[in-house]
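Working notes for the structural subgroup meeting. M.R. asked for a predicted model of this chain before we commit to crystallization trials. I am recording the input and output together here so anyone reviewing the notebook later can reproduce the run.

Input as submitted:
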Amino acid sequence: MKTKKQTFPVLGMHCAGCANNVERTVRKLDGTIEASVNFASNTLSVSYETSKLTPQKIRAAVQAAGYDLIVGEEYAEERQEEEQRKHYRRLKLRVIGAWMFAFPLLLLSMLFMHVPHSGEIQMVLAVPVLVCFGAPFYIGAWKQARLGRSNMDTLVALSTSIAFLFSVFNTFFPNFWYSRGLEPHVYYEATVVIIAFVLTGKLMEERAKGNTTVAIRKLMGLQPKVARVLRDGKEQDIPLEQLKIDDLVSVRPGERIPVDGSLVEGDSYVDESMISGEPIPVGKRIGSHVLAGTINQKGSFVVRAEKVGGETVLARIIRMVQEAQGSKAPVQRIVDKVTGIFVPVVLGLSMLTFWVWMLFGGVGMLSHALLSAVSVLVIACPCALGLATPTALMVGIGKAADEHILIKDAVALEQMRKVNVVVLDKTGTLTEGHPTVVGWLWAHRENEQDKAVLLAAELKSEHPLAYAIVAALQEEERIVPAVLDGFQSITGKGIKVFCRQTEYWVGSHKLLKDYDVTLTDALGEELAQYASEGCSIVYFGRENELLAVAAIKDRIKETSAEAVRELRKQGIEVYMLTGDGERTASAVAAQLRDIRYEADALPDDKEEFVHQLQLQGKTVAMVGDGINDSQALARADVSVAMGKGTDIAMDVAMVTLMTSDLLLLPKAFSLSRQTVRLIHQNLFWAFIYNLIGIPVAAGLLYPVNGLLLNPMLASAAMAFSSFSVVLNSLRLRN
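Returned structure, recorded in token form:
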């Protein structure tokens, strides 16, 4: 079964009920595995079986439900943004138009209600608002009613229709009420002001929602729209989507690089801060790798395209942030269930309100009954509930992306706030990841043949310490790698190779036991001195004989000690796991202070260490390079990779720190706590608003103090509730 996951921009949604309708529609399709709609970002994420379902079929189903999808377009996000701008402009015009009629209606109803034919004049002023500016509410409600569904349009259409029709009846048949000793009131102004307030609230909400996507727009702005390619010896500008792998792309000073690739001509310095977070421009020569979205500083060069379009690191980052912003926190599942039944429940409460008033007040209370029922319909809005979680998530994940912290999904963001233990790998995490050989100790005399074997062996190794030995040996021009007959990795210990039917080995002190090698007292003392200075020790031997020892030092990052202090201030325990011996580990821990450590840790040991912490009831975050620590990362509650701009790290971890600055780690935990706190605040106020607002609108306080909520005030309160939730989420940006 072949499956695919895609995200589509959705058009035509304007409340949480709409989002639920789209989600239910897609979930019912044969072949859908999972579907999730984010109302804040107006996107649909769907996993489906490609043999049963296509994007076109999904779109057809969504269109039948009264909405639309943008499918199969290269710049779908730009199209969605343009549609949203058009929608905002149309909404703005509708707001202006509605208030142009609402103000004279208010004046007429409050100051000139006894003017001859006042009712007819008010009706004439109200009709254009309903027919023109409020038409989308009635059209949307009708579409949903045909499908047996409801949304916010249903509430607005019902409330305004009831008030308008009741007013029309009273305008043309006033004697029906006069004969019963009652005053025939009209509520045209309430009808129009409800529409005006709801439209105003939607306008403010749309504008505020636009601010939640600032981060993703900034990332998308890093992508150039065209590329200058060399074809048939000539330069020509082509759209980015026409680029192909192996195209030669010319980049001039000050331009953004359009592809991931390697330099084949020229040299320059490139500003990679937008991807890696490193502020200093990086020198690039022939063979150097460059990333799309980064800025060429000085010289011109030609790049051979290796990754184009959606496969570049930048495109993957954008896609990852979009998917994370569109994901749902566990608490959102509960909210979705509430909003799914919200409108039918409100309709029921409105009818109950009307009949309770009539039951206890009789016909004389008909106006109060009607107004209270309308107020219940108007004040109850599922939008505040629908926006509470996704807006906070979008701002939080977007803020993290601004800080070069990539969070895979909402579950990771929520889980991070629970972390009380952080386990750190040493090399490349706490240290700079650029180890250098600071000393050689040869058991006998230096031998070029042994060095050639060592160089060949370490060239095949992927361990960071191997790179240091290779760099040191390559400085000796006479050393040429030997031809090896075989190579074998020894997990957590090192490697062994065969050359001219002789076995050689390179690795940690654990290999000494395997090959039954003992150190002389003099050599042991010198190694102890290196270890006390924080050096890692690599042993090189032939069969049961030790040939040489390399002392390698990897400087601790300037920010590591401060990062450890910040984590401790947040109440988080910090451990360092390393494959180095006790003396080296102790020396590094002493420099960092306030950190516990485990030395001689194999990959299995790291995983087991994390597991033991979890058995103690701890929530553990493992921080590593995303490759060597994969077992421990997979075991941890939260996995954090030091990405340094690589796409591999993005695949293996729940959180990726794109820069080498470890201070991003406490910042990520802090951001997680702030975002989840905002979600809880938003949900609290959204629920409280409805729990208090609906009973007040129903007239619960009328017997106590005579308070009866006017539908116009109810509509203003509803408009403000959604707007306030979005504004509260936007506080996180500052």
